[in-house]
């Protein structure tokens, strides 16, 4: 007999975390596996951020804090939004959470009822539809393939909106594709949303600072000020500051929504770690020059991986504008046979073949809502990436 709730039964375990766990298991068994499945920078947290955390511990800053963020961290976030995005928020418009995923979870659980619809462009980050499903809402998936730069068009958005639409989720630069919307593209989407007064926008800007495109980063509340009161602008310190384990996400939005999210958080996790919050203050207020050097390294890695994958039989790999992922199309490999006689019937078969034959771990495209493809994270050294892509090239060349 099981007593699992209906809500829990509506979701699946994270495919990205499952592959990361598999990689750890194989490495523990002594297998020479290269893990390219985790969305985590290989750079270390900056020393000045670590120092702030250590000082917070020494100062006894180890007690409960305000549920949704300390005044110091909220002030740092307000400064960041004003300085980098031209967005002005009051403290009651800021929420701090235990990671960006927690921010998204709080917002959706606090606002969705059964039958409410959430528009999600695909490829999407794996957790978006599952969180919507958890609430009893309905994900409305809009496929945006490589032929349109993995970005939803205004026409597609207009066709997807209904009287039940509650949210539109945008993610730029994107996990899993690295695709990024220009200000003009965001303005076109905003013009579609604006007349639909009950529709809100959740923009996931977690990869804001990992950006290679010629056009500057933009976020929708910035380019569509008429949507300011209907936009939750989500960000965090995980990716830019290499602080994934510190678990700090944050957002700016309308005061009523921030209050509702705080109410939910007060009965779930309560406050994020006080030490992590002190570190995040330092990250947001401290020197930002190291971001340029790290982005240059990410861009070199991107160019290496895109070049090698495009030289691989059966793969087509678009060049992303940001983040640290590529999302190659693998259509030409579906239906082929491995040296052991197994047919590659799906992109999940393909990544299992890569893992078994080449000892390279990736994540299959079906997990992100658009197949056949797979996601590779290039947040590791150029030597490791070269070896991984060489192994993939050999594995693909062996298919018949």
CATH homology superfamily of the largest domain: Type I PLP-dependent aspartate aminotransferase-like (Major domain)
Strands, count:
12
**Uncertain runs with pLDDT below 50, 5 residues or more?**
none
CATH architecture of the largest domain: 3-Layer(aba) Sandwich
Summarize the biggest pleated sheet. 7 strands, mixed
Mean pLDDT: 96
- The CATH topology label of the largest domain is Aspartate Aminotransferase, domain 2
User: Which descriptor suits the 3D outline?
Assistant: globular
Structural class: alpha/beta
Q: Indicate how many domains the architecture comprises.
A: 2
End-to-end Cα distance, whole Å, is 47 Å
The CATH C-level class name of the largest domain: Alpha Beta
Q: What share of residues is helical?
A: 40-55%
Specify Rg, calculated over alpha carbons. Answer: 21 Å
Our estimate of the beta-strand percent is: 5-15%
Determine the number of helices (DSSP H or I, runs of at least 4 residues): 14
**What order do the helices and strands follow?**
HHEHHEHEHEHEHEHEEHHHEHEEEH
Spatial strand sequence of the major β-sheet: 2-8-7-6-5-3-4
Describe the protein in words.
By secondary structure, this protein is α/β, with parallel strands linked by helices. It folds into two domains: 6-44 and 290-397, Aspartate Aminotransferase, domain 1; 63-285, Type I PLP-dependent aspartate aminotransferase-like (Major domain) (Aspartate Aminotransferase, domain 2), CATH 3.40.640.10. Helix content is 40%, strand content 12%. The chain is built from 14 helices and twelve strands. The chain has helices at residues 6-9, 15-28, 47-58, 71-85, 100-111, 127-135, 154-160, 183-193, 220-223, 255-266, 274-285, 290-310, 347-358, 382-397, and strands spanning 34-35, 94-97, 117-122, 138-143, 165-171, 200-204, 231-236, 249-252, 325-326, 360-361, 363-364, 374-377. The strands form three sheets. The protein has a seven-stranded mixed sheet, sandwiched between helices. Helix 4 (71-85) packs parallel to helix 11 (274-285), helix 5 crosses helix 10 and helix 12 packs parallel to helix 14 (382-397). The longest helix has 21 residues, at 290-310. It is globular, with a radius of gyration of 21 Å. The N and C termini lie far apart (47 Å).
């Amino acid at each position: 007999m099981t007593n699992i709730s209906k809500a829990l039964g509506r979701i699946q375990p994270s495919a990205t975390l499952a592959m990361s766990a598999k990689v750890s298991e194989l490495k523990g068994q002594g297998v020479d596996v290269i893990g390219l499945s985790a969305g985590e920078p290989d750079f270390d947290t900056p020393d000045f951020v670590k120092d702030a955390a250590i000082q917070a511990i020494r100062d006894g800053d180890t007690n409960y804090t305000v549920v949704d963020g300390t005044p110091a961290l909220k002030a740092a976030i307000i400064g960041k939004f004003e300085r980098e995005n031209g967005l002005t928020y009051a403290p009651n418009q800021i929420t701090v959470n235990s990671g960006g995923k927690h921010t998204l979870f709080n917002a959706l659980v606090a606002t969705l009822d059964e039958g409410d619809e959430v528009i999600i462009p695909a490829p999407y980050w794996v957790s978006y539809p599952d969180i919507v499903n958890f609430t009893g809402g309905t994900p409305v998936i809009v496929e945006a393939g490589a032929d349109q730069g993995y970005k939803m068009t205004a026409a597609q958005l207009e066709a997807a909106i209904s009287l039940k639409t509650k949210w539109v989720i945008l993610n730029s630069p994107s996990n899993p594709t690295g695709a990024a919307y220009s200000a003009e593209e965001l303005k076109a989407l905003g013009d579609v949303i604006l007349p639909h007064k009950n529709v809100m926008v959740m923009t996931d800007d977690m990869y804001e600072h990992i950006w290679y495109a010629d056009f500057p980063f933009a976020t929708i509340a910035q380019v569509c000020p008429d949507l300011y009161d209907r936009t939750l602008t989500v960000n965090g310190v995980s990716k830019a500051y290499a602080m994934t384990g510190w678990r700090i996400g944050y957002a700016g939005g309308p005061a009523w929504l921030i209050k509702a999210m705080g109410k939910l958080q007060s009965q779930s996790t309560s406050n994020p770690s006080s030490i992590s919050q002190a570190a995040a203050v330092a990250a947001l207020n401290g020197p930002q020059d190291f971001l340029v050097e790290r982005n240059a390294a990410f861009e070199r890695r991107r160019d290496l991986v895109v070049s090698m994958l495009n030289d691989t039989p059966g793969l087509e790999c678009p060049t992303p504008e940001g983040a640290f992922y590529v999302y190659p199309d693998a259509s030409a490999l579906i239906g082929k046979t491995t040296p052991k006689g197994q047919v590659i019937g799906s992109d999940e078969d393909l990544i299992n073949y890569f893992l078994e034959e080449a000892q390279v771990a990736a994540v299959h495209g079906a997990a992100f809502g658009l197949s056949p493809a797979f996601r590779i994270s290039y947040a590791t050294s150029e030597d490791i990436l070269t070896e991984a892509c060489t192994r993939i090239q050999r594995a693909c060349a062996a298919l018949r």
